[in-house]
Amino acid sequence: MGTPNTSEEKMIYKANLHRVGAVVPESITLLEEYNDVQDWSKVKEAAKKGNLLGKASYYRIQAVLGMFKQRFVDEHKPLPTMKSIAKFITSSVSDSAKTQIMVPYFFSADALGQKIFLELVKSRYSSGTQPRLSADEVETFIINEQKEHPELERWSDYLKKRWSSGFLSVLRDFGFMKAAPSEALVKPSLRVETFGFFLFGLLDAGKTITEIQSDILWDYYLLSDREKEDLFFECQSRGWIFYAKAADIVELKPRYPSLEEWLDASLG
Q: Which residue, 20, 100, 187, 248, is the most exposed by fewest CB within 10 angstroms?
């Protein structure tokens, strides 16, 4: 995930987002269940036949399970696997950290959402004024994308409007936008536990410090270079890593040999 989705298969835009949205509470419930049983088929069965997702309709349950699979069951290397996410979710971290950890998985599973966030949302934070985003602007972006993505021409006007409104709802659920009807964008403060989770995940994937610093996943949190450096030092203050920087020379050494051992020792 060092670069945005570029494969032909992943870059086909699909109209799924508006059906379920971010589904943060439902995702947490499913991840908690997976942490207990360690079997995705059993989790699906509990959701379909039990009361795991409450009194949701059959259609809603099917939609949530389908979206959950795309985001967490399917692998998005080098993001950590569902087993690690589930362990993080069931640790003592705050609710905001649990919500934040889902952001890269959402964008990795939705090519259009990823592109709109990186090209339409992220750029607005450098304008020097209060960044805002309307559903009409998202819809216009989708229309303009039709030149490169003819599959969007099959979307009805109604679908484009629903998807655009759904995208703003996702931004609100992940903390990037004020509550409706406001269109003001906000920049949430990334929890150090969330940063540490992905840092150790990237180390597990064999990434160098230079690759880690420039990985696209930090763009999903709108982190500046200074904010990343502050988070590296906060990880060091917690005893998770050794981090030092002198001019252009940077040294990073993990105190734990793997993400799993960090999860057990630091968040367990």
A: 248
Per-residue pLDDT of the chain (268 residues; tens, 9 = 90+): 544 544 434 478 988 888 899 999 999 999 999 999 999 999 999 999 988 998 789 999 999 999 999 999 999 999 999 999 999 999 999 999 999 999 999 999 999 999 999 999 999 987 668 899 999 999 999 999 999 999 999 999 999 999 999 999 999 999 999 999 999 999 999 999 999 999 999 999 999 999 999 999 999 999 999 999 999 999 999 999 999 988 888 999 999 999 999 999 999 7
Kindly give, in sequence order, each residue whose CB lies less than 8 Å from that of residue 267, ignoring residues fewer than 6 positions away: 87, 88, 91, 92, 93, 193
Start-to-end C-alpha separation, the chain:
27
Q: What is the CA radius of gyration of the chain?
A: 19
**Where in the chain are the domains?**
23-101, 111-173, 192-267
Measure the CA–CA gap between 234 and 236, rounded to whole angstroms.
5
What's 79's DSSP letter?
S
Residues 6+ apart with CB under 8 A from 121: 131, 133, 171, 176, 185
Which contiguous run of DSSP H or E holds residue 254? strand 249-254
Dihedral of CA atoms 189, 191, 194, 200 in degrees, nearest 10, equals: 110
Q: What is the CATH number of domain 192-267?
A: 1.10.10
